[in-house]
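Quick one:
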Amino acid sequence: MSVDKLFTNKTRTILAPMAGYTDYAFRSICRQYGVGLTVTEMVSSKALTMDNELSKKMLYRESNDTPSFCQIFGHEPEVMADSVTLPEVKAYEGVDINMGCPVKKIVKSGDGSALLENPKLASQCITAVKRAIGDKPLSVKFRLGVNDSSGAVDFAKMCKDSGADFITVHFRTRNQMYSGQASYTLLPEIAKVGIPVFANGDVSTRQQYLRLLDMGAYGVAVGRGALGKPYIFAELADNSYEMDMYDVISTHTEMLLKTFSDRVVANEMKKHVSAYLKGKRNGKYTAIAVNAAHTTQEILHLVADYLAVEATANIHSNK
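Output:
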């Protein structure tokens, strides 16, 4: 499948994979707002080959969530190749390899952005996975570098030469983590490598989206900018939309309860609800209460009460 066939809507957007956030329910919700491609939370290729139950649970998906890629991480070419032949991974339209995660425990294991320091091994991993998935598209996500961006263009070339069909570049270094601002200075040069490039980092408006396309990006990937704002994909497409916060949160909760216990779902929803409430008038007080809740019903009641109070306040303020 060509990259063009993946993105049949008018915007070329990806919901960037985020550990602990891009669960199947959140991906499904973003789909309703027009995202072009979703990607799972990163899953260990070694854990998949060892039949790890939680890792396989993470690959559950909603029927409306298509096209979607499974993101794997690892550093052993054969293990990574074996993992993408499993039914749970083959159910996805493509595979994404994480070569950008900056988290210390991932890097210390030789995975994620550790591969930025070993382009030869990174190439072997890409080639092995591409050979294993055949005609399905393969993408690679990576950062500009460890301390600086001096090797970013060469790394992009390596991805192309090794078999990647497109790349997503987070325009920060590993040492930056998520601080500071993404720097797109190298985007035009990376785009000249001859492989579609999705730009990732601080994208929050349609104006930014269009500017990045003008600089050579094929599309954009949005991560943190979608938390609490799944409608960002409608905004990037310049489409009208409506969002009922309670409806979205309750739908998200109900979806997760299909595969996880109420306790697990309650803990998962706390961070999502906090994202929805961020920046909202009096939202921090409800967020604090939500984080102290023990069940999903408690959380939903707190959200409903907050919205009811705010609706009443709005009515009075408009008189």
